[in-house]
Each structure stands twice: as structure tokens, then as C-alpha cells.
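Q&A log
Question type: sequence-to-structure
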Amino acid sequence: MRINVRINGGSRAILIALLVAAFCSIATPPVGAAPAPVTLYPPTNVTTTSLTLTWTQSDASGFTSYSVFNNTYNSFSCGCTKLDTINSRTQTSYHVTGLTPGKTYYFMIRVQTTTGSSDSNVINITMPTHEVDTTPPAVTIISPKNITYGADPVAVNWTVNENATWVGYSLDGSELINLTSGGITLGTLPIGPHALTIYANDSSMNMGSSTVRFTVSYDATPPSITPMLDSGVYLDEGEPMQISATIWDDSAVGEAAIFYRIRGEPSFRRLELEPCPTCEDRYAVDFQAPIGADLIIDYYFFASDGENNATFPSGAPGELYNITVRAHPPAVIIMSPVNATNSSALLTWDPSEAADFQMYSLLLIDTQGAGYSVVDNITDKLSSSYLVSGLAANATYQFVVRVYDTSGLFSDSEPATVFTLPNEPEPEPEPEPEPEPAPSWLSQYGHYVGAGAGAVAVAGVVISVYLRRKA
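Response status: OK
Response body:
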């Protein structure tokens, strides 16, 4: 027998609604006592077609499963896809494959219990259209170390080998906690073993992590730290300094260190304090001030006896000791060659670029190694020359221009060597004329003698002629 059923328009609408409701009930949570939802984190290990989802572990009573859902729009009431059902409470990650490059996906994790269910937060991602970096960042945990700590707060310091877009940590498998730049401290921890994991995401959503295991144990007496120097020490750039403290414990000091950072840096660096071999309970490390800029170094002491931790100041790393490093003013350059005469030298240089200039000090260097003497001090920053007078001729001198700042720090120029000129030689005097010799008898009366001799000769001739004629 055939039965024909006619459905009018109103009944048809009701029937369609019932069918849609039955279909959508696949993705609708059952009614009951809802468990606490888990937290779904941003995807990691993202490629063009796959990614990894991670979430916090559910602690709901009557846990039965996790359901992993995705959709191409932000709705999970109907039309979504259940990717998988996970029956293990401790499995808190799921690798999704088969995704389309450039497409946007929404993800959600549902916790199912025997009495109800709850949905996590929704995260979304647009899949990259080309391959991206798949290497997770490397996380290095500086502290805590794999040792036993006491009841004092445990310092947490770390480094990441690349720029991290997000950093967080989990202690003993608990929910992830965001980390900002710089170190933190963990409060008083329960006695027993602990595991600290630090996670970091890079810009390609790759997640790296590192885990350290340590133990906490209490006793009544943590190490006592007494610094050998007060805070607020001033150092010149490049100046060495020994940072030391007396550290005492009723059992033994297991480790001693200082954590320091240049003010403005995000994280601390660790320097081990070494025990003094000839000094009881004294620990020290050699430190050299950086060169090149005025800066402040913040630091604190840390010590552990294996059961108790201590810091000094006790509020570290919030409360810190500090060292102020002062950079020297820039040195000037004496221009070469130096103009010199036999008694003076003109020194010239470019004006100082020191921001807090105090004065130039012109120094005469003792070339025999006995130090120097101050020729003059010049407080005019724009002065760039000086005439040194009173120098010896044909001599060698060395001069230095020293630049002082207002804090008393100074920098010296390279020595300038000056050679003074010799004196001009005096002209030789012209020789005096030799005196004429006294006149002789012959020179005075020779003409008379000559005349007489002539007369006698003539007379002789005459007489001779006369006698010849008479004969």
C-alpha cells in the first residue's frame, strides 16, 4: 500500500530547519558542565602548506579528548572541519598539512569531557605563498643552572641567537607565560625538582626552546654577601677594577657570580667570582671598563650554597649596584711642521671637540725622562695656537697639548718635536793696518849723498882732462 504525504510550505521550512540543526550538531558542543578551555598559541613551523598547532594541557576532570577544528572563516558552529580527535591528555600539539598557499585559515581546539566541552580561543593565519625560514631560533638559558637552589628567588636569564618576535617560559609544564626583555626572577618555589623551559618564536613563527632542570631545597641560612666596594663607583674608560665581596655560608658556597649589563641593554651577562686563594671567604673577578663612551654598568652579586640562593642587593635584579664609566675627551692633533725661530715656536691645532671642555694645558716634556712642566693653561675652547717664547737656540724640545673636561679627565696629543734655529754668526772684524817702519838715514839723506857723489865724479873727470893736456 502506498502512502502519499503532502508537505505544505510551512512544514517544509520546519523540516529543512530540523535537517540543518541535525547537520550542524556535529560541530556544536554537547550541553553539560563545561571544562576550563585550553589556550591555543600562534602556529609554529609554518610552511606554504603546513603548520604546527600547540596548546596548554587540560586539567579537566573526566577528560576524554581534544578535537582540532579549522575553517576558512571565523565560525565553528557550522561548516567547519574536524581535523582530528586526540584522546591523550598530554598531547598538546598537532601538525596540520594539506593547506593551500595564500589562503586564510582559522583554528580552534575543543576539550571534551564526560560532562561537557569547551572551546579554546581562535587563531588565524594566512599561509605564505613561498617557502619561509623553517629553522627555529636557538635559546640558551644562562640561569638557573642544573644545581640545587634555596628558598630565595631564582634568577632567570637567557639569550636567543636571532631576533625573537615572542618569548615565553613554562615552569614544570604549566601554562606559558610571556617574557619581556631582560631577566626575571622566580618566586619561592616548592621543594623538589623543577624543569624550566624557555620558548622563542622568530618572524617566520618557528619556535625554539631550551630546558634546564634544577632542584630547590631549603635550609635556615642562605649565603651572606658583603661587597668590598660601595655602589656608585666612577671609572675612567679602559680602567681596570676588581669587583669583590665577602661571601660566607654555614656549609659551603657552591657558586658565586655577578650579573651585569650596560644600562639600556635587555639582559644580564654573568661573570664568575673566583675564591681568593689566600683570603678567607673572599671572592673576586677582574673587570675592565669599556672604552669609547660615557655609560653606566648595573650589576648585582649572586651566591648559592646549593640549597639557598642570595643576591646583593637583596632586591636584585630590580635593585642594582652601579659603576659609572667616564670617557676621556677627544685628543687634539698638533699640526706639523711647527714654525720655530732661534728663541720661539708657534704651536697650532684644531679646536677641541669635547662636549664639556674645561681647558687646554700646554706641556713641555722633559726629554731626559723627568716628567713635564706646564707652559700655560688656556680656557678658551676656540683657541688653536700658542707662541712659546724664551727658548734656547739650536735646541730640541717636545710639546704636548692636553685637553681637560669638566670632570678632570684628559687626553694628550701626540708629542710635537721642535728644533729651534741656531743664532746668526757675528761678522769677523777687519784687520787693522800694519804701522809703517821708521825712516832710515839713507832714505832721509840719500838724495843728498847721490848729488855729492855725482859732483865728485864730475870733478874727477875735469881733473883728469887737465892733467892730460899739461903733459
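Response note: The longest helix spans residues 441-470.
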